[in-house]
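Handout, page 2. Input:
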Amino acid sequence: MSALRIEGHILTPQGFVRGVLEHEEGRITRVEGTLRTEDQARSEAQGLVLPGFIDTHVHGGGGSDTMEGGEAIGRIARLHARHGTTSLLATTMTAPLSEVEAAMRALAPACASRAPGAARVLGVHLEGPYINPGKLGAQPDFVRPASIDEIHALNALAPVRLITLAPELPGNLDIIVVLRAAGFQVQIGHTLGSYEDGVAALERGAGGFTHLFNAMTGMHHREPGIVGAALAHARYAEIIPDLLHVHPGAIRAALRAIPCLFCVTDSTAATGMPDGDYRLGRHRVTKCLGGVRLADGTLAGSTLTMDQALRNLITIGLSLEDASRRVSTCAAEYLGLPDRGRLAEGVRADLVVVDRDLHLQRVIAEGEELDLAPSSDAVL
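Output:
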């Protein structure tokens, strides 16, 4: 098979080049061109070629929830792929163990191989159940103590790539060390912990923070809280840039403090769907006025997609090169994936092509050109 060729302004690790990218059998085989400034790249007529987006926090999309089983993960992965996400972590909800196990079994085939027309499901993000019952957010109240044996058993069903826990709960600081030694990445989230708890968790190997600012103790100048620990010490943290979960000013503050702040959608089944009621784990949530909420008004995930996240970052003042890092490269580095999140010879052929207004023209996932037309999975 001959190499497939894309011409345009290609965002390489060295910056934009005007030239050609070739890929074959799912890998980039050639990137060549002449360096351009970002202003030149955006002003010239050719398409802008960026790394495919990576989302580490996906609960659903296209009317389906990751806890459903069956064909749900296929619909979710196809919906997000049509918005430029080429890799994602399927994120579970706090639930009785039997329900988490059932969800893991259903997710396993998607983790084992990428379905045509879909994003690669890299593994599972366990968002709980090892969280603080006083900071559930939209999580159902099925919290329980963390258990390394339980986590290993879940990992045997489907690969666990990321675990959110509250460091202040008994035993959780010690289990971070054990989890990291076993190869699991750990995030701090859904927590009532103090600044000192956050620092202690980072010292024990926790890698980042789950949807920074949301479902954690905020920063006060005499009690810095978990947010203060993140701003003072973190290299990595998730943030939801739908401009509803976090004020643009707070996003900008986090960008100045955290070198590898990266974007997630925290998307729900309502993503890509009309206003109405949808499932989020055991909860019923309502999509209206651009958000998703529980009956009491609590934000319950989002309807964000990663292409819109990219545009939102530009809106609040980031360069395209920096915004691209925040929706792909930083997450790849965080997960230890050197063959994703950048455009260079030898890496996966995961990329998007956008126009000067940053709307998607093409999506290629592991070398496959995807059909961007809406399907019956969702109303876009």
